[in-house]
Amino acid sequence: MTEVLFNGHAGRLEGRYHQSEIPGAPIALILHPHPQYGGTMNNKVVYTLFSCFQNLGFSVLRFNFRSVGRSQGEFEDGPGELSDATVALDWLQSVNPDARQCWIAGYSFGAWIGLQLLMRRPDINNFVAVSPPANEKDFSFLAPCPACGLITQGCIDDIVVPDSVTTLVSRLNTQRNVTVDYAMIEDADHMYNNHLVELYKIVGHYVIDAMKKKGPAKKRRGRRKKSELEENQEETLLLENDSDEINDFEDDASFNDE
């Protein structure tokens, strides 16, 4: 993992980046929760998402929004952070010009920003939104939602009301040509305390299935050879094998919650 700095519209932005060794590997941008409630790129849920995409063979970037950590600028509650995410995606694409797919994943406030970015960037193929704050933020801009994706929600979340997320998912799934998978995690709160491994597995399986659906077409004759990415996914995630790593930071005080 490499520390990176890149220029945003309000100054320097700080990030952590993993470069895949697989040629043409897909890319993923991870967005953290609300800066004014302690949200940073080192949040445990953000790190879980980062690790999941990394272990699936993606080149992946997480970064601090303006005013967080070493990132410069002032918090703007939406417009500035969307600008930061746009710049971060531009940077990620600039160092991965041959990436075969582009994903966006965000948690809480970061999910709201990520879905706005999705509307502005047709080059994003799929999304993961963890606990989008549907009871506090307006998601009516998803009309129509331009890509399929996954939304997760904790059943005992006392910050994001579960019913509001269920309503959002139902509304999105009435739109044509879009399928939004929905995973409600029993006994999970907003921070996914003691449920990070479960979140990791749900996201990992979704990404693998989505990548298979959008993978290269099979040749007419003979069996298509598995790509290096597919082999990497099968060998590294198989999800049960990485539980110990996630359990290690499940209670690590160096990762803030939000």
The total beta strand count reads 8
- In percent terms, what proportion of residues is strand? 15-25%
Give the % helix: 25-40%
Which strand order spans the largest sheet, edge to edge or round the barrel?
1-2-4-3-5-6-7-8
Report the principal-axis shape. globular
Distance separating the two termini: 23 Å
Main sheet characteristics: 8 strands, mixed
How much is the radius of gyration in Å? Answer: 17 Å
If helices are DSSP runs of H or I spanning 4 or more residues, what is the number of helices? Answer: 7
What ranges have pLDDT less than 50 throughout 5 or more consecutive residues? 216-222
SS content category: alpha/beta
* Sequence of secondary-structure elements: EEEHEHEHEEHEHHH
Overall pLDDT confidence: 89
